[in-house]
Batch of 2 targets.
Target 1
Amino acid sequence: MSILVNKDTKVIVQGFTGKEGTFHAQQCMDYGTQIVGGVTPNKGGMTHLGKPVFNTVEEAVKATGATVSMIFVPPAFVADAVMEAADAGIELAVIITEGAPVRDMMYAKHYATKKGMKTIGPNCPGIITAEECKIGIMPGNIFKKGNVGLISKSGTLTYEASNQVVKEGLGITTAVGIGGDPIIGLSYKELLPMFEEDDETEAIVMIGEIGGDLEIQAAKLIKEKITKPVIAFIAGQTAPKGKRMGHAGAIVSGSKGTAQEKMEALREAGVYVVESPADIGVTVAKALKERKNK
Amino acid sequence: MNIHEYQAKEIFRKYGVPTPRGGVAFSGPEARRVAEELGGNLWVVKAQIHAGGRGKAGGVKLARSLDEVEKIAEEMLGMKLVTHQTGPEGKIVKKVYVEEGADIKAEYYLGMVLDRALEMPVMMASTEGGMEIEEVAEKSPEKIIKVAIDPTIGFQPFHARKLAFGLGLGKDEQKEFIKFANALYNVYMDNDAELIEINPLIKTGEGKFLALDAKMSFDDNALYRHPDIADMRDLDEEEPTEIEAKKYGLSYIKLDGNVGCMVNGAGLAMATMDIIKHEGGEPANFLDVGGGANPDTVAKGFEIILSDPNVKSIFVNIFGGIVRCDRVANGILEATKKVEVNVPVIVRLDGTNAKEAAEILKNANIKNIIPAKDLKDGAKKAVAAAKGEL
């Protein structure tokens, strides 16, 4: 078991024939991901990396039965690509591209939600179910199979956390890089319950950052609904206060988004909050041991 | 990206958001000329810096004669303004905005920002105009009225009415306010704004609304489609080393400590600062070299970190994923040939091919390159080196 994706998941790549799309699609295929084709407008009919290229997502879905799309198109075209995927009945879009305008993502996310399509990202490393299916740009070899679920706003910290977990002799069920943009797809509040329901997952690592209040919302949810141990690290405890023009954003969310505030809320919800990023792995091991002894 | 008040007001006027008339000046005599052209007998001279809280810091002053306009402008230009948003180092005033005086009957606050949780823009209003809105939010949050605007239906009169009733506006004033708020929504959406704040928004003796102040910032990711706004960028308001770093695809923020940091990925870079502090040191900077970490970016990174004389050691913390550690190790060695690095460099490379990387560094046998076995070990060594204890 795992969440969202596994060895049977059929994936298409939007922006398949571009430099990034080509490189990472190949890496995903090498990992074992079922990449069944790709979409690049005006290149329909071609074969790329041994897979068919289509002009539209609709054609690609019809021909391949793909349910997931990995999106690599340039920032200015991301919203269009997401909405095309939603329109074609894709169930999950994994948006890797960095630098998409916030306003575009606002419209794209609204439309995806309306069409019932889940999204991950943008500006994220993607999702990986260890030793089964990698949809993204993460180094696959770091994710060994195990019983720890991982949710992270940051790319390299996801790798760092997974590496530490593996060094403890443990492993990962599924790791999801949710990205840190102002508008993102699946977040802690959707993913935590998925891990809670997943039989194989026994502990959940959650990596947060300063800014926004997603971690505060997550703390509320953990307190009410999550029974599995959660281990959290919040990056940016020492970040200086931003020399911003104003703090209207913080006023809207009703919190200032500091690491201290988030750590406090998580601790209050019974989460194992790690102060040093070097202690993620050992704390996971400790939490699992404590759970066993209960 | 942030812009100045005078630039925000230019945009406002284009969209029919009323503002007082004014002009920007770089010298006393120029300020006088602007005031003369505006006419009247009351002017306001306002320091143009990218920070709020100017009034309290002496950056906004009334003038009742042309001589006074000139004198105030001359005093203000070159002055160091320290507000609660500039940090203790303050900001040097390089231009002033001279504006006609206004007949103020009431002051309000009006702002717009993205609500991340609702995933739509929110317009906020308050009767506590002129006060710090952060303070209002803390002491009397009920005095802030918010409406979320679903972008798929756009700004509707009911949104504005909700705000107008909340502000206690009369029937005739409501009409004016709805027009004002609608225009402001268009400014926000059309220009990919991140934040707009008008504090204060004033009602004049004639019952008209005017944006007496204007703060605006924009989504950097969308600047490519607004070349006119991108041109408004004022490099004087940014750190020169941060601008230089950006040219090479590096993201650098200078801090006050003495342990330099070079890291790939923003999250890991923040976590590296955290662990340095955790181990008893003080980070000298935030530096994200991005995914590449090739010899050129690493060399530039060293150069930028070492431009800060406080730096006593450097912690290179790279998690090699797709970019393998052995390649990064070679990049670091090459970079040390390009830039003279005269402080201890603690290198922690983990991830793909970490063992090969450790071999490369060991065999190179360079005196001030010290390998670390993991994150904690690296942070400890970097902190010790900065204290001269390694």
Target 2
Amino acid sequence: MSVAVAKRTPDGQSAPAAEHRVWGRLIAMLGSRGWILLVLFLVLLVAASIVPDVFAPHDHEAQNLRARLLGPGESSPDGLHLLGTDSLGRDLFSRMVVGTRLTLFIAVTATLIGAGVGVLFGLLGGYFGGRTDRLLMRLGEAQTAMPMFLVAILLLSLLGPSVFILLVVLPCLVWPIFARVVRAEALRLREETFIEASIATGCSTSTILGRHLLPNVAPRILVLCVVEIGHVMLSEAGLSFLGVGVQPPDTTWGLLISEGRPLLAVAWWLTILPGVLLGISVLVLNLLGRYWEARSGAAG
Amino acid sequence: MSLPLLEVDDLHVTFNTASGPVHAVDGVSFTMESGDSLGVVGESGSGKSVTARALLRLFAITDDVRIAGSVRFDGVDLLRIDERKLRDVRGGQIGMIFQDPLTSLNPLMAVGEQIAESLRLHRGMGRSEAAAEAVELLGRVGIADPERRATELPNSFSGGMRQRVMISLAIACRPRLLIADEPTTALDVTVQAEILLLLDELRRSEQMALMLITHDFGVVAATCEDVQVMYAGRLVEKASMVHLFDRANHPYTEGLLRLVPRFEDAHTGRLHPIAGQPPITGGGGSSCAFAPRCSHAFDRCRSEVPPEVAVGPQHLSACWLAAERAKDATEAGRPWKRDP
Amino acid sequence: MSAAAARAVLEVSDAVVEFDTDGGRITAVDGVSLQLSTGETLGLVGESGCGKSTLARAILQLVPMQQGSVRLEDTDLGSLSPRELRRMRHRIQMVFQDPRGSLDPRMSVTALIGEPLRVHGIGDRASRAREVAEAMELVGLPALVADRLPSELSGGQQQRVGIARAIVTDPAVLVCDEPVSALDVSIQAQIINVLDELRDTLNLAMLFIAHDLSVVRHLSDRVAVMYLGQFVETGTASEVFTEPRHPYTQGLITSVPRADTESAARLQTARRLVLGELPSLLDPPSGCRYRTRCPYATDRCADVEPPPDLLDGHHAVRCHHHRAITAGEHQPSSKSMRG
């Protein structure tokens, strides 16, 4: 009577198992202290964006036509160019350091805006249900169904590229994700007795949403934020790469990749190295988010 | 001479958890003969359910569990046979029913089919023979119109009827031992009464032994002749039910018996709760696990594990004061009963 | 009767609660009236699906009532605006069945107990802290758990927090919905004693809902037995428990397994008093709700719904035949003689 054996599965989604397994293995590789390395990397990024001068060995805008397209490790009269120089002889490492600020700023701000909208809609939809919920979720679905990346390109090429427009377009890409996750949590929590208990206590709706629902979904939101910052970073790089994102003289990693692309055959480092930095950053954010999620899931 | 049907000797079950090992069962020994009815009483965490599951090694794959000791069923040590042979015992010679029948039934399979499947598997019946027997079994556990209901899915049955289905599944292969783990805890009292009577009748008609695990002495009183009380993974008292009512010896048993508001009494002041709470980490210490909650505890209770002492015919109590208390009980009558 | 009604802090008249389910509309509470006075406990017993929890939620206005009224200290709760109702809530509080689930997992013990005070703007920060400490002491929570989260408490402590939160605003009425059924037996007695003491010290009117008859018997002054949305028998605890008149009440009481030597024999009797299965609320029986399971049922029971028959005092029974049954003049019909 094998049916009698209680099969306890760890609660949670059985979702894309293969993808989960890859992340699971990566997280397992981190061990119990690996996350410190990840955090250290992020701290470096944040520090570079606050005080780039400390990290950048050269002036990122200083051109030197005699030191054009130096490979990584070569030196010019100005000194060592750790990651080489571009076609105008500007130090690539310094440009990457300086580009960190705008890259992070756009990614974080856009994610927070998207999170704000998504959390609000998710909470309202999940808690009230019914018509409010249907309306908000249809909105999210409609937007998910649209090729938002193309819409973003269209919008940016019509209105002209600017950081401001990026901060309008990029949140649109992420809010439905936040709304979906928060709504699912709110739906679950709404059925918990402690919500009924707070109604019986005399809490107003805003108190219930703000004091009881929000703090209980906050950990998931934070984790999601970390992961989504990476994704937004990637989207911004994509838009900048296509020339509809950040415009020179401002610079981001995406723009650096874009600028280096025509020279890929002669100066691979101009494209590959910013790309590697972007890739590592996205990976680190993803890993960290999932690591925290796994940890809190095990604890709760 | 004959071997007992079930002989559990020095059973230990230890779970390795993130917060260290938990000794859920800590040296439990008992025997059961065919036709015996044994109630195992304890609170959550006392190890009563784990004991039953350990007999059949029914643990989730994710549990990191270590079982020691021996469980001889019909002369065979169930802890030492391989998984394939154990599967024949599970649901074959030993049937088991749980508190929540719904989780033990396949929700997508008609109940008659589930019973028939078990019959084909364990009793080697043919398809049509098994189907007929399934209907017969459903009728025997008191399900009206069994032909029709055999074709229905589990969730079209009420809680009590589902437990009947579960019982018919458990007795399908004429087990020699039926283990019922809190079979009526989730049920209403009137339904509980019917299920308890059904279990009692089946035990007599099928000549099987019944091990009933519960937290409710009333349930034991209605269905079992013998009772053993568990606390923190150990047996603290073992006696015939009648004897236990008259001569509860262990302070924990006494506490359990008197803390339930007795139905016959009107409001007679406050209840007598047992202070504190049961340990959650199981047993395994070198003291009486009940000592922190016991008003009779003295130094020895905190430094040495009390052995099981015979305090009457078929009556064991694991308490350093057992002999003394047995003498008092003889003089004073029912110690747990409030003053007349 | 009139004197009791005048002092009643809670008065429910003819409450009807209907729900839409997948199978259709059901009437979970069907014309229930009750009164509760200060310092008095009304025990509400019945089996799952009888509507007792729904009635509690309707009294607290947590589910809408289709008919009837709830008067709390002479205010009709149904007539209040949502804001006025929220202000009224500190006068009637509830203790829930699931001690852990009813506490916000991210709030500390003091924050949980203090929340009703904060929400209702009672006192200032310092006085609230005092009231919380006082409530903790009343329910027997040690001060050292003040900053803990619910998950760090035992089940008994969690329920003590739930009770402290319910009494901290000094309510007139306390509704307890199965407050001990999720707890271990040795903890149940502790919690029952806490409720028992609070009722006396705070002079609470208490509605105590449970399926465990011995617990209800122990705590209640009066008892109402509920079946399929209706009260079938009401009276003082000793009337209902020692001289039950309704066949269902008799069956219910006999079904409780007691720890004595006649336990099995008593269950045999119970089996003859409660027949078959609980009918669906989607298709409730005509006339007397209990007739499909009653060994004494006659044609009249199917045709006419029995009105409450008031015996001496408060003892009311909803049965056509209870007087004849008590007098021994009405025997069970043959269908009760099965198996």
